Amino acid sequence: MQKLEVFGAKKLKGQVKISGSKNASLPILAATLLSNKKVYLKNLPKVKDIETMINLLQSLGSKIKFNKKNLIINNFKQNKNYASYKLVKTMRAGILVLGPLLAKFGNAKVSLPGGCAIGSRPVDIHLKALSKLGVSYKIIQGYVHASAPKGLIGSKIRFSKISVGATENLIIAASLAKGITVLSNCAIEPEIKDLTNFLNKIGCNIKWIAKRKIKIFGVSEVNEANYTVMFDRIEAGTYLIAAALTVGNLKIQNVIPKIIQNEINTLKKIGTKISVKKNEIHIIGNKKIKNLNIKTAPYPGFPTDLQAQIMVLLCKANKNSIIKEDIFENRFMHVAELNRMGAKISINSNKALVEGNTSFEAAELMATDLRASVSLILAALTAKGKSVINRIYHLDRGYENIEKKLKKIGAKIRRVN
Ligand code: UD1
User: Fold this and answer.
1) Structure-model confidence comparison of residues 113 and 80, the more confident one
2) d(Cα 362, Cα 166) in Å, to the nearest integer?
3) Ligand 1 pocket: which of 47, 163, 195 to mutate (most atoms within 8 A of CB)
4) Mean pLDDT in residue range 356-383
5) pLDDT at 150 > cutoff 80
6) The domain at 22-228 falls in which architecture?
7) Which of 17, 33, 88, 169 is the most exposed place for a label (fewest CB within 10 A)?
8) Ligand 1, atom 17: nearest CA belongs to which residue?
């Protein structure tokens, strides 16, 4: 199994180009199932989760090929409506094919994704909302068997809780429903705006009518289109934190700074110097890091996907900080490993008390999930000596070329078998 070796205590300097967003690409790829025509997508990141989604689409009958920078999806003969456990179990976003398959065929059989390291992660909100569009379903042997005998019919739906995935599944499904759907209490992550921009580009009719409210006028078919996926704001945030941690000097490129204004403000409060241009963020780290209390929240709040990374930075603050995880119930898997490196973090239910003034020590480490893996790399980048990070397949699910990008800005890091 592959490992990463990191030789730390090097300042990161230079420029890093941010890849396309994994979390925007996944629902957009699922949404291509609505089409019977060609869709051209640009800026998809080369990461494992995207490969898995492409495999899932191919298993459903999509014809997919790469041509230069485009992924070309041809759904002319896409005719299957069964998503197997084998593909959905490795990536929860597999459930996003349920909405488009129901919209297209009126019935579908999709494996339940199951839990993962960061919590039980049910899909009850997706299913309850789909039933309001006329879908009835049964769970049989780990699969959702769903059908809409009269087709999907537009409705007014208020989500009981803000869910990124459920909002996406419903937007995609309602795009081909009969009549008008109004969704409220929607997640408003930038990736969801990217999805609605994509859907409107292929001929759907979706309007944001209030902060968390969307009106969808069902259409009967969609067109051929080209679309460029947005940048990965979590990858950008990770490199910003890496620069702050190593007291580095980095230009983060191919981004839209205002989309990550909250993260920029947080890093400024902690003491880093940040300036922005249209598509670039320039960060200069500061040896003195101020403590801060942070709680994760749906966008525009602080993202749970950056919680592990900011925790590493707060270990270096002048005083104690508290991090409250309000999205997932079990997202502190990185804490035990960070403590093995010398951090002093204690957990009380969904709060982590992070003591400051930590000097991380190099160690052999085990990655537990995608963002936890990267937090271990960040800690290792500040520790003198060699750290070894095992189970990096988690990392490969969501970070494109991470060793290459880190090496280019001065890190000493290598992948070994
Ligand atoms: C997406 C992101 C993930 C991010 C998360 C929160 C993708 C591919 N993944 O995950 O990186 O960490 O948003 O920003 O975009 N919940 C239920 N029932 C449901 C659905 C969700 O109880 O039917 C709960 C979840 O367990 C969690 C919370 O709602 O506690 C938010 O989850 P959700 O926003 O749905 O996350 P995902 O879409 O799975």
Assistant:
1) 80
2) 40
3) 163
4) 95
5) yes
6) Alpha-beta prism (3.65)
7) 17
8) 122
At residue 160, does pLDDT exceed 60?
yes
The average pLDDT across 257-264 equals 98
Ligand 1: residue whose CA is nearest its atom 25: 121
Find the 113 Cα to ligand 1 centroid distance in Å. Answer: 12
Element (H, E) at 214: strand 213-217
| CA dihedral of residues 366, 370, 376, 378 (deg, nearest 10) | 160
Q: How far apart are the CA of 304 and the centre of ligand 1, in A?
A: 10
Q: Is 144 in the pocket of ligand 1 (CB under 6 A)?
A: no
Which pLDDT band, with edges at 50, 70 and 90, does 368 fall under? confident
Q: What is the DSSP string of 22-57?
A: HHHHHHHHHHGGG-SSEEEEE----SHHHHHHHHHH
Over residues 19-37, the pLDDT tens digits come to: 999 999 999 999 999 999 9
301 CA distance to ligand 1 centroid (A)? 14
Q: Which atom of ligand 1 approaches the CA of 327 most closely?
A: 30
- Helix boundaries (H) for 117-163: 124-132
299 lines ligand 1 (CB under 6 A): no
- Ligand 1: nearest atom to the Cα of 165: 38
Identify the CATH homologous superfamily for domain 3-19+231-416. Answer: Enolpyruvate transferase domain (3.65.10.10)
Q: Is 127 helix (H, G, I), strand (E, B) or coil?
A: helix
Q: Is the pTM of this model over 0.70?
A: yes
Nearest atom in ligand 1 to the alpha carbon of residue 304 is 12
DSSP secondary-structure letter at 16?
Answer: E
User: Mind listing the pLDDT tens digit for each residue in 371-410?
Assistant: 999 999 999 999 999 999 999 988 999 999 999 999 999 9
